[in-house]
Amino acid sequence: MKKLLTMILVLSMVVAMTACGGNSEAGNEESKIDDEKPAEESGNGGEKKVLNIGLSWVPGNLDPIESWNSWVLCRVGCGENLVQIDENAEFKPVVAESYERLDDKTVVFIIREGVYFHNGTKVDAAACKASIERALAAEDRSELKFPCQEILAEGMTLTITTSEPFATLVNNLSDPFYIIVDAKAAQEEGFANKPITTGAFKVVEFTPDEGIKLVKHDQHWSGPIQVDEINASYMSDGSTRSLALQSGELDVTQRLEARDVDILEENPEFSVQRGPNLRVVFIRPNMDREYMQDKNLRMAIHYGIDQKTYAEKIVGAQPANGPFYDQLPFAAEKEMPFTYYTEKAKELLDEAGFTDSDGDGIREYKGENLHLSYLLKGDNCGDTVNIATDIQAQLKEIGLELELNIVENYSDMVSAGEF
Which residues of 218-238 are buried (b: 16+ CB within 10 A; e: fewer)? Predict the structure, then answer.
């Protein structure tokens, strides 16, 4: 028996629910029942408007500076940043009414008048400063930190200066990680389950692995909120969320699989809204593996998989030609560098010495079967698993064996270099 060599390819796919009204060709969908659905009656004889949301993921707590918790707060209308990215992939003012870049190290934000935290505390520049500093001191999400030299707060004016030119400062601050919270309240017990933020809805109950209950924030800066309550339920399976929409159990959901969106679009009772999505599905090779340092092997994998079909037929998106969404100003303007071409893939593998000497269908490296292992996050949607399954089948055609491993401790394995 030949010893098996192992490489793990990492697939990362994070899909957020976008605002309505964007490019219908993007791969992210949000589906909801028509707004004219009758509201539920409240116990006092009046009408209470309740919105039922289906979430694809609910974290262990709601502190926005831990892991990716902040994304859930944005999805349920609880969290707001100084600025956020709208459905046209442009910055829009939120807690800050405006901002100006003075030079390549300095950005000034004017905080909006009339913004209040859920506990009634008025939001000013000092409150925003404390919130941002809390995020910068967090242990998680180091990729979003910026080289902060100084943050000055004077009334409603917030000035952030970096220690070196940092062109993506505003972009970083628009990530939900920098949701504005009451930093004083964050020191109190219970904040992680009921965070004090500025959004249109505030958390009144949170149950890990089950969901979140919210009520409208009567002091929200935008004016009267048209929905009284939100029930956000955790439903991990996309098809389950789709069925819950169709049965009336849910009014809104996100991260649906492409086939379910097609079904909902054919039903006149539903409104399907699509918007641009900055997320990219990518394969990350472990370059510490000696064989992955061989350019021919990496190119063969590119030629051996049908990226265009995955994007257009499985996900309902568009094939990427780089790590950035093509509407961003710094995205690549070239066509896809690789097309699906199995004969070219086989030729490259032969040239590099990855051959099948015993005819078992598996190519070898230094006399040993080359066994590739594909690592996926346990909470990835079904479309992501479907892509991985197709990759497995197509790589087999060029003599590369691929094992699919769906794990819950994905981040830990990547951080430890176990891939």
Answer: ebbbeeebebbbbbbbbbeeb
Nearest to 62 by CA among 47, 51, 75, 72: 72
On whether the CB atoms of residues 373 and 8 are closer than 8 A, the answer is: yes
389 vs 320 pLDDT, higher one: 389
| Per-residue model confidence as pLDDT tens digits over 224-245 | 999 999 999 999 888 899 999 9
Question: What Å distances lie between residue 352 and 43, 292, 300, 355, CA to CA?
Answer: 73, 11, 10, 9
Residue 43: predicted pLDDT: 42
Return the pLDDT at 419.
72
- 3-state DSSP assignment of residue 310: helix
Q: Which residues contact 192 (CB under 8 A, 6 or more apart)?
A: 61, 62, 63, 66
Name 164's bridge partners: none
- Crossing angle of helices 238-247 and 258-265, rounded to 10°: 20
92-111 pLDDT, tens per residue? Answer: 999 999 999 999 999 999 99
